Amino acid sequence: MQILFKNIKELLQVREDKIDFISGKEMCVLPTLKNAFLLVKNGIIKDFGTMEDCPNIDAEIVDATGRMILPSWCDSHTHLVYAGNREGEFVDRIKGLTYNEIAENGGGILNSAKKLQATSEDELYKQSKKRLEEIILLGTGAVEIKSGYGLTKESELKMLRVIQHLKENYPIEIKATFLGAHALPKEFENSKPEYLELLINEVLPIIEKENLTDFIDVFCEKGYFSVNDTKLILEAGKKYGLQGKIHVNQFNAIGGIQEGIKHNVLSVDHLEEIRDIDIEALKNTQTMPVALPSCSYFLGIPYTPARKMIDHGLPLALATDYNPGSTPSGNMNFVVATACIKMKMTPEEAINAATINGAYAMNLQDKVGSITRGKLANLILTKEINSYNYIPYSFGNHSVDKVYLKGKEAKN
Ligand SMILES: N=CN[C@@H](CCC(=O)O)C(=O)O
Ligand SMILES: [Zn+2]
């Protein structure tokens, strides 16, 4: 099965060679080809070039006149498997309570855990697949999904099995992350070590046996899990071959970044509160910093200082953080726009951060994130637009016309 996209106004994120990620000044370059063709065979990018070299072959033809093609978004941080919603807390925040005050009053992550524990695996799958289908149509072609609203052995495994079923049933690339250390359940209020033991000695062995997880995560934050707890979780993950991707520096900078780097974590995510020593620590590492601007938008907390980080030579990835508490949105188009508008990233930087660097933050850089021969044909075909700057410019809207996963058009 071959598809030939012809007359593409501009083909974005064209990389002849596979690369891992890009950093600093390199991020403001977005390689493109104008008036291009793109050939897809059996779901894989076979060839591309300018229209002068367009092959004359037997293939399904898509005329992309006036429109652009880019690799689909790579969303490396979500919690999109959850039960119910938390719009009540949303109203409480409007009336003046903070995210942390709500959590202290029994809301927050524990509220979502209560709902999820009372929801069957089938029902959880039904609620979650709707969100997955929604983000696919918004242009996401690779996504990471975390557990962390179960907080008991049974419910954490229930979440991970739901993620497993989504992986089996949808053509989008999915990576699963075990986030048992997301919040301390009430029953363990005075016995945190026992909860960590449960995660490490009882849940992790089953996860390994059933091959349910790709990464391990922990919410390293005051009132949640300390730097030392983070160390224990990352060490335990390593024993099971799981690399870390951690929540750090959302509300307080307590040294989680440095601990993560010691354990060679794949990504450090959030980073709304970041000190100069944290930026220094991230230099020349293989750890991807990940910003979640929709979370800052929704909670009214500071944005990750992307400009400063990139100007210091760091790489950066952008992701949604799709979850019921801090970010009830999985729209990567909004993330890219907000990164430009609020974090002063250029459109080139934001698109790089939401494609190739996002792919790296899921260890998927060999499969997605750029227009490269041999990668999956996970693509966004835009509406008619004048320039790619229009993609972040038209915030709150989106420029996605069609989405292709493994070369097949994704439909409602
Ligand atoms: N900060 C920790 N976890 C989620 C929010 C969890 C929730 O409020 O349900 C986040 O990444 O923002
Ligand atoms: Zn998160």
Number-wise, the strands total 16
Q: CATH homologous superfamily name of the largest domain?
A: Metal-dependent hydrolases
Global geometry: globular
Mean pLDDT: 97
Number of domains: 2
Brief characterization of the structure:
The protein has 412 residues and is an alpha/beta fold. The protein has 15 helices and 16 strands.
Your description of this structure?
Residues 68-408 form the Amidohydrolase-related domain. The protein is an alpha/beta fold. Strands 1, 2, 3, 4, 5, 14, 15 and 16 form an 8-stranded mixed sheet that branches. Strands 6-7-8-9-10-11-12-13 form an 8-stranded parallel sheet. It folds into 2 domains: 2-72 and 370-409, Urease, subunit C, domain 1 (Roll), CATH 2.30.40; 74-360, TIM Barrel, CATH 3.20.20.140. The protein is 35% helix and 22% strand. Bound molecules: N-(iminomethyl)-L-glutamic acid and zinc ion. N-(iminomethyl)-L-glutamic acid is lined by residues 108-109, 112, 219, 247, 250, 295, 321, 323-326.
